[in-house]
Amino acid sequence: MAILHSYPFCPHSRFARLVLAELGLEPDFVEEKPWERRLPFLELDPAGNLPLFIDDEGLAVPGARILAEYLDETRDESLGDRRFLPQDLAQRVEVRRLLDWFLVKFHQEVSDYLATEKIYKRFMPSDIGGGPPDMGAIRAARANVRYHLKYIGFLIAKRNWLAGDQMTYADLAAAAHLSVVDYLGDVPWDEDETARHWYARIKSRPSFRALLADRVPGMAPADHYDNLDF
């Protein structure tokens, strides 16, 4: 049985969960608190990054980007022309470019700040950085999310999905990271209707249901978080 080591509000873990659900794969889930750095987990992936997928043969596949490539090589061919990393070379480059945008740039500028400051630090011991959030980091992330939202709106105004005519890994990565920010109520959806409509399409998919059911103990989501019609 395949296993996914993940954390409910780790944006990269949410990407993995979305992709696996879209492919109809149902691994066993192991909750891995990223700040704990458990020795058994580090023995599987010394870098300690989430998510970590263990396939049916026991192969450890670390990280969101590597998992996407692994699934494309082992599973996506069954999707034919609907695969999440298209067969056309130029389209594959565009999907990979946008994957990097959301898994790296958006994470560094928005989702990592907000997940760490508003969620992780609530549960981390003080000796490893737990405690009150850094409001400066939160303000920076809230400012940064605005231009990312405009960029999503810019892309969707020209395309059916972020990378082209069909949904790809780019859409799933963007939606996964935005979902954490949206839980916290920090996405200014009223500033870009085009981006909001795109996100509504994504979060209405069956693969999104498990994410919308997640809750941070002691912290309710934004009122619209699990409302499919916003």
CATH architecture descriptor name of the largest domain? Up-down Bundle
Estimated radius of gyration: 17 Å
Q: For the largest beta sheet, what order do the strands appear in spatially? A: 2-1-3-4
Helix content: 40-55%
Residues in β-strands, percent: 5-15%
- CATH top level class name of the largest domain: Mainly Alpha
Computed structural class: alpha+beta
Number of strands: 4
Low-confidence stretches: none
Which fold name is given in CATH as the topology of the largest domain? Glutathione S-transferase Yfyf (Class Pi), Chain A, domain 2
How widely separated are the two ends?
Answer: 37 Å
GO molecular function, one term: glutathione transferase activity
Domain GST N-terminal: 1-79
Subunit structure: Homodimer.
Pfam families: GST_C (PF00043), GST_N_3 (PF13417)
